[in-house]
From TrEMBL:
Entry keyword set: Receptor
Signal sequence interval, chain numbering: none
Similarity comment text for this entry: Belongs to the UPF0065 (bug) family.
Protein name: Tripartite-type tricarboxylate transporter receptor subunit TctC
Origin species: Cupriavidus gilardii J11
Keyword Ribosomal protein on entry: no
Length: 345
C-alpha cells in the first residue's frame, strides 16, 4: 500500500510540473491538488471500514430495538471485518439517541438503528425535535418488522380483548396503561385503542419496556402494547397474559394469537418498522457498502430462525425503497396523533 501511494504521489507531482509549465503557478497547483484528491478519495473509501463502527439506538437493553441491533450488529461485524459496538441512548421518546447519531461525523463510523414507527410518531407528537429522521439522515437499509402485542397482568380477570374493553368501560378513568415512553409506538398504539373503543384510561409513560414491565406485572397498570422480544418471556412465565398482536397479520411464532382486527377492533393494523440510517452527508459508496453488507446479513437462514423465534420478522429493503417506507410511516402516524389529539411539549 505504501509503495502504491508513493508511486501515486510521484505521478501526481509529475503531472503538476507539466501543468505549471503550461500556465500560472496558482492554476497549476490547484489542478494538481484536484487530481490528487480525485485519485485519493476512491482509495480512501475503498478502505472503509478501517476501525470499529458505532451502532446507536434510542432504547435501553433487552427491548426489541436492542435485540435486533445486537443480532444484526454482530453479523455486520463479521461481514465488514470490524467490530460493531452497540450504544444504547434511551429517553425522550427516542429523541436523545437520534440526536446523538445525527450529530456524528458523516463518515460511516456511526450508524443508527431507527425504530421508524417510533420516530414517525415522535415527529408528529413532539412540539420540537432535536433531529429529524428524514432531514438529518440518509437511509441505509430496512431490516424488518417487530410486531407488538397487547398484554395485561395475569392477576386481572381478563382473557380476551372484549373482556378488557368491558373491564375498562366499567370504571372510566380508574385504570392506566403503561408505555415505553411518551411519543413512542407503545404510547400511540394505546391511543389508537382508545380511539377505536372509546375507553377512558390514563397514560403512564416509562423510560423503555424494561422499566414499564415490572409495574405492569405487579398490576399497577392494566394494559400495555409492547414488543414480542421483551414481553413474551413474561407471558411464558405466567406473569402477563397475551390478548392479541397489533400487526395486520398473525405472527408465525404465535399462530393461535388473534390480531386486533380479528378480536373485533376495526382499522387496527400496526407494523413496527426498523432499519438502518446514517448521518446526512455520509458518502454514497459507504452507504452502498453498508447496504450490501446488511442485505447479506439478513439473508442468513440462521439469523432469520433465531430472530423469528423472538417475534422479529426480518426483511431487507434497499435504501431508496426504505426512504419511501419512512415517509409512509410519518404520514400514517401523523393522522393518528392528530385524531387522538396527542401533543407533547
Amino acid at each position: 500500500m505504501f509503495m502504491q501511494s508513493l508511486q501515486l504521489a510521484r505521478t501526481v507531482a509529475a503531472q503538476a510540473r507539466t501543468i505549471l509549465k503550461a500556465g500560472s503557478r496558482r492554476t497549476g497547483m490547484a489542478a494538481a491538488l484536484g487530481m490528487a484528491a480525485a485519485v485519493a478519495a476512491p482509495a480512501a473509501l475503498a478502505e472503509y471500514p478501517e476501525r470499529p463502527i458505532q451502532l446507536v439506538l434510542s432504547f435501553p437493553p433487552a427491548g426489541a430495538t436492542d435485540v435486533l441491533a445486537r443480532a444484526v450488529g454482530q453479523r455486520l461485524a463479521q461481514e465488514l471485518k470490524q467490530p460493531v459496538v452497540v450504544e444504547n441512548r434511551p429517553g425522550a421518546g427516542g429523541a436523545i439517541g437520534m440526536a446523538y447519531a445525527a450529530k456524528a461525523a458523516p463518515d460511516g463510523y456511526t450508524i443508527y438503528m431507527a425504530a421508524v414507527s417510533n420516530a414517525a410518531i415522535a415527529a408528529a407528537t413532539y412540539s420540537s425535535q432535536p433531529a429529524d429522521l428524514q432531514k438529518d439522515f440518509v437511509p441505509v437499509a430496512g431490516v424488518g418488522n417487530v410486531p407488538h402485542i397487547l398484554v395485561v397482568p395475569a392477576s386481572l380477570p381478563i382473557r380476551t380483548v372484549p373482556e378488557l374493553i368491558k373491564y375498562l368501560q366499567d370504571a372510566p378513568g380508574k385504570y392506566n396503561f403503561a408505555s415505553q415512553g411518551s411519543g413512542t409506538l407503545s404510547h400511540l398504539e394505546s391511543e389508537l385503542f382508545r380511539l377505536r373503543t372509546g375507553v377512558d384510561v390514563v397514560h403512564v409513560p416509562y423510560k423503555g419496556s424494561s422499566f414499564a414491565l415490572p409495574d405492569l406485572m405487579a398490576g399497577r397498570s392494566a394494559m400495555m402494547f409492547d414488543s414480542i422480544p421483551s414481553a413474551l418471556p413474561h407471558v411464558k412465565s405466567g406473569k402477563l397474559r397475551l390478548l392479541a398482536v397489533a400487526s395486520d397479520k398473525r405472527v408465525t411464532t404465535l399462530p393461535d394469537t388473534q390480531t386486533m382486527g380479528e378480536a373485533g377492533i376495526k382499522d387496527f393494523g400496526v407494523n413496527n418498522v426498523f432499519g438502518l440510517v446514517a448521518p446526512k452527508g455520509t458518502p454514497a459508496p459507504v452507504i452502498k457498502k453498508l447496504a450490501d453488507a446488511t442485505r447479506t446479513v439478513l439473508a442468513s437462514p440462521e439469523l432469520n430462525r433465531t430472530l423469528e423465534a423472538q417475534g422479529v420478522q426480518l426483511q431487507y429493503t434497499a435504501p431508496d425503497a426504505f426512504g419511501r417506507v419512512i415517509q409512509g410511516e410519518i404520514q400514517t402516524w401523523s393522522k393518528v396523533a392528530q385524531a387522538a389529539k396527542v401533543k407533547i411539549d
